[in-house]
Amino acid sequence: MPENNEQSEPLRNPRSGFVAYVPVGSIKKGEALVTTGGSGRTVACGVCYGADLRGMGPVPHIAGRSPSYLARQMYDMQSGARHGEWSSLMQPVVAKLTDEDYVSIAAYVSSRMP
């Protein structure tokens, strides 16, 4: 939801922020998946993105990114719709994730400081 409806519509101010509401407990569930891999459900994100999720070398940062962007990217990688240079590396990482996992991971990662 827009933080400020007057700035978001009709002005379409690109600096007007948004708030993403998630089910209670989503951030905590996401933290477990992101930091530990969730007992084999996925791989800890820090392996590629760094402990602070701010990227490493050619791997971009994911901390603080839009939750809808993060969820869409995970879904596209899982379904095979994303064909970027490193997408094939992410397919086994996202293979077992559910829609609830997408929400939880996106909630946690987007809550981190970029």
- Strand elements, count: 0
**Which percent band covers the strand fraction?**
under 5%
Radius of gyration from CA coordinates: 15 Å
Let me know the CATH homologous superfamily: Cytochrome c-like domain
CATH T-level topology: Cytochrome Bc1 Complex, Chain D, domain 2
- Estimated helix fraction: 40-55%
* Biggest β-sheet strands, sense, barrel: none
Through-space gap between termini? 21 Å
Computed structural class: mainly alpha
Which residues form runs of ≥5 with pLDDT under 50? none
CATH architectural category: Orthogonal Bundle
Number of helices: 6
| Cα shape | globular
What are the SSEs and their pairings?
Layout: H1 5-8, H2 26-36, H3 46-49, H4 67-79, H5 87-94, H6 99-111
Helix pairs in contact: 2-6, 4-5, 4-6
Account of the protein in words:
Helix 2 (26-36) crosses helix 6 (99-111) and helix 4 packs across helix 5. The protein has helices at residues 5-8, 26-36, 46-49, 67-79, 87-94, 99-111. It has one domain: Cytochrome c-like domain (Cytochrome Bc1 Complex, Chain D, domain 2). The protein is 46% helix and 0% strand. The chain has 114 residues and is mainly alpha-helical.
